[in-house]
Amino acid sequence: MVSLLELTLQLSRAADMVSPELNHHQRLVAYITNNLGETLNFEEKKLNEVCVAAVLHDIGGLSMQERINVLKFEAINPHQHARIGWLLLKDYREFSEIARIIKFHHVDWNNGEGLRFCEEAVMPESHLIHLADRIATLISRDDKMIDQKDRVFEKILSASGRKFNPVYVKAFEQLKEKEFFWYDLESISNGRRYYKKIKFKDQRLNIDELIGITKLFARVIDFRSNFTAVHSEGVSAVAKRLAQHLKCDELTCKKIQAAGYVHDIGKLTVPTEILEKPAGLTQAEFAVMKEHTYHTYVLLFQIAGFEEINEYASMHHERLDGTGYPFKKKGTELSQGARIMAVADIFTAVSENRPYRKGMEKEKVIEVLKQMVKDNKIDANIVIILIANYHDINKARIKAQKKARTRYNDFAKLLTS
Ligand SMILES: [Fe+2]
Ligand SMILES: [Fe+2]
Ligand SMILES: [Fe+2]
């Protein structure tokens, strides 16, 4: 059983790591939202929902530049990333309300008219995040936060009614006098772990529910770029089929499937500007790219019950001869699941079509894999099984990626509509 909350928090953290300028932005906003909601006596369920929405509110900011742009108090074109966030999350049952809150988190209060936007109802919770978000953007890291309380409040007050619900601004007026609030914000922004924790309601997920949420994660990870739009779905499908052909037990197969979905979660920390430059990366850019498996490991490490999934997911760039990264593990130090993931990742990467090139044909793929076996990079037995079941495994990849591609195309269409 794994905690939905821990998973959500790690997804949020990964998204905030794309630039130090973001300074734990989503966590800060969630913290401010929580305290405003408590001051306003929000009932527990509502408070919990709005806090989870806050922790993921900018998940739709696909590029680093976009995320940084909306950190300006008068954000330019802020609704796009809010809409993307909604699109990414809305189909996961547990997140449907949360997605609706996120969709309108930049709508101005407009003296009450902001309860509707583009002919749709806007939830009051969206306005609470809007205020918390703007408070967070006004706070600078350069000075002691508590010394900024009056400046921040004056600025918020000057937009009360126009941008923000005056009732919520009143709540902030009360909150800003409490020293702990500023001390906590300082602590969060310094990446420290001690602060008055948000009382999130949590939920335990069984393995099938876990597969549902990791599939959603795959979308958040992959949809950042047209280049990778269906990669994790492919890796997951191939890894699962391989595990089945290798006669792994059912639970292990499912764990491997989940690991496939999240194996590149560390890529959320890589700016899209680098992700979209497949060829000709500078040395510095490649160094950033290479770090992604390390981040996958550290992010998943925080989740209790994820030990095996993490072991499978994070070692996909390790090689049997010890020349992989980032742990330089070799031979028997690599579990069967990790070896499967490495083969699935390579197989999918060379077989899948990308916007800038076509995938390799069967003969070429087999040649590449065999050469890697010869060089003692990947597991010979797994490659034998793959070749013996090539058609079946490749079919599973194509099917999963086709489905994901349709989804991605719908997603891209909705964005331009
Ligand atoms: Fe935003
Ligand atoms: Fe934000
Ligand atoms: Fe990777």
Strand order of the largest sheet: 1-4
- How many whole angstroms does the radius of gyration measure? 23 Å
CATH class of the largest domain: Mainly Alpha
* N-to-C order of helices and strands: EHHHHHHEEHHHHEHHHHHHHHHHH
State the secondary-structure class: mainly alpha
Specify the number of helices.
Answer: 21
Distance between the termini: 40 Å
Output the CATH topology of the largest domain. Hypothetical protein af1432
Average pLDDT value? Answer: 92
Major β-sheet annotation:
2 strands, antiparallel
Task: Give the overall form.
Answer: elongated
Strand content: under 5%
CATH fourth-tier homologous superfamily of the largest domain: Hypothetical protein af1432
Summed up, the domain count is 2
Uncertain spans, ≥5 residues at pLDDT below 50? Answer: none
Level of helix content? 55-70%
Small molecules in complex: fe (ii) ion
* Count of beta strands: 4
CATH architecture title of the largest domain:
Orthogonal Bundle
Textual characterization of the structure:
With 417 residues, this protein is mostly helical. The chain folds into two domains: 2-189, Hypothetical protein af1432 (Orthogonal Bundle); 207-416, Hypothetical protein af1432. Helix content is 60%, strand content 2%. The chain has 21 helices and four strands. It has helices at residues 4-16, 25-39, 44-55, 64-69, 79-89, 96-103, 124-138, 149-158, 166-175, 179-189, 207-222, 231-245, 250-262, 272-275, 283-290, 292-301, 307-314, 336-351, 362-374, 380-388, 390-416, and strands spanning 2-3, 116-117, 120-121, 204-205. The strands form two sheets. Strands 1-4 form a two-stranded antiparallel ribbon. Strands 2-3 form a two-stranded antiparallel sheet. A hairpin with a 2-residue loop joins strand 2 and strand 3. The longest helix has 27 residues, at 390-416. It is elongated. The protein starts with a strand and ends with a helix. The mean pLDDT is 92. Residues 206-402 form the HD-GYP domain. InterPro entries: HD/PDEase_dom, HD_domain, HD_GYP_dom. This is HD domain-containing protein.
